[in-house]
Amino acid sequence: MPFSIGANSAGPAEIPATSTKVRQRTQLRDHYGAFHSRGLMEQSATCIVPLLEMVFWHEVRRRDLWSSVVTERVVIIGSGPAGWSAAIYAARASLEPLVFEGAISEENRIRGTLPLGQLALTTEVENYAGFPAANLTQFLETALPKERRQYMAPHSGHGVTGPELMELMRAQSVNFGTRIITADIVSADLSKRPFVLKTSDDTVVEAHSLIIATGARANYLGLPSEDRFKNHGVSACAVCDGALPRFRNKPLVVVGGGDSAMEEATYLSKFASKVHLVHRRDEFRASKIMAARVLDNPKIQVEWSSAVTEVLGDDQHGVTGVRLKSLKDDSERTLEAAGMFCAIGHTPNTDFLAGQIETDDKGYVVYKTPFRTETSVEGVFAAGDVADSYYRQAITSAGTGCMSALDAERWLASRGIH
Ligand SMILES: Cc1cc2nc3c(=O)[nH]c(=O)nc-3n(C[C@H](O)[C@H](O)[C@H](O)COP(=O)(O)OP(=O)(O)OC[C@H]3O[C@@H](n4cnc5c(N)ncnc54)[C@H](O)[C@@H]3O)c2cc1C
Questions:
Q1: What's the Cα-to-Cα distance from 45 to each of 5, 41, 172, rounded to whole Å?
Q2: Which mutation among 169, 349, 396 tests ligand 1's pocket best, with the greatest number of atoms within 8 A of CB?
Q3: Domain match, 355 and 338 both
Q4: Domain check: are 173 and 265 in the same one?
């Protein structure tokens, strides 16, 4: 009977009995987490989610759970490696963090911002320390409750997959008392204390301190064929995917003309037989030194004044090439390639902050002090890709997630909030 209030879907360990109204309602919302697998979303978003919403709101109205606002000590917004690492640390410090993991919505699916973050969009993760190539099946069976494993793809035995790693982090944070709400934060008022947050469910939450771990999303070209081959040859991260066997000693395409594109093309040239760098203009936006590195690299061929109009491939091989259009004379040709890497930038998920904390010109949160996670608003901390346009890795996000929780804990203690 999965949807009754009080049932614990948390996994092997009990949530500590820190009962508040918020805790009750988060337990109920936590059941929704089982449905964030993309496969299930696609199959059943139209029927199951609305039904669950109905059951949930019926329960909420019946028990009048929303009648009072509880001021949280730490609210964490975001559900990638940064958010869960912050939650593990904050929970172990007995701060009972409340995590908003994002909403299961069509908008988030299209943007690539469903709960569990960017890593849940990929398959094998080979560079997160502590997960060597091994068959993790038995470990996963004991670490995760069955209902949260049933929609995962069969295990390759190669290491850990992105969704598995994120589920493990989530479960670990719940084991120490983290409470989770499956909704977006749509606006925040950081001018008052406590801070006031509004959710996509139209609920208001107050918080003494806030950790922003909302990540960033990769920009893609927006072609339907590109969507079809994501994880099957289309990627937005050379450091993450470039070393995978499917790309080794094969021709690859990189799209872009800025510093990131130069970096991605140079990095991929170590593995690929050849890299075609496709750029819309006849000169690069990148810095001179980065551009020179590319132009001097015999394995990189620049396809000037060109745009990818279609990603070619099939179900068996994934990407096999791209169709290119010349922006000078509209002529078309195809390039053979085992992969296409988009290097046309990322968009940090900071819209909901509406300019209330300092960001750079691209919208990334700016840290006030190097090696600290404090932002321009006292009591608000940031972690992960939302404040990092440079490293953008799961392990670096987890690292700043840990730092943000320690910073928040110390800040709360300095204010006498325990
Ligand atoms: C296809 C792909 C493959 C990758 N492979 C690797 C790899 O192999 N190794 C590696 O180290 N890195 C890899 N990365 C990069 C890595 O995934 C990111 O660096 C990392 O996930 C960033 O973590 P984060 O916690 O900062 O945020 P994210 O993972 O971006 O998660 C943030 C999440 O917070 C939630 N959120 C956003 N806004 C709100 C809001 N307003 N309210 C509530 N919730 C919200 C959303 O669910 C969002 O997805 C890959 C990235 C991609 C796209």
A1: 23, 5, 27
A2: 349
A3: no
A4: no
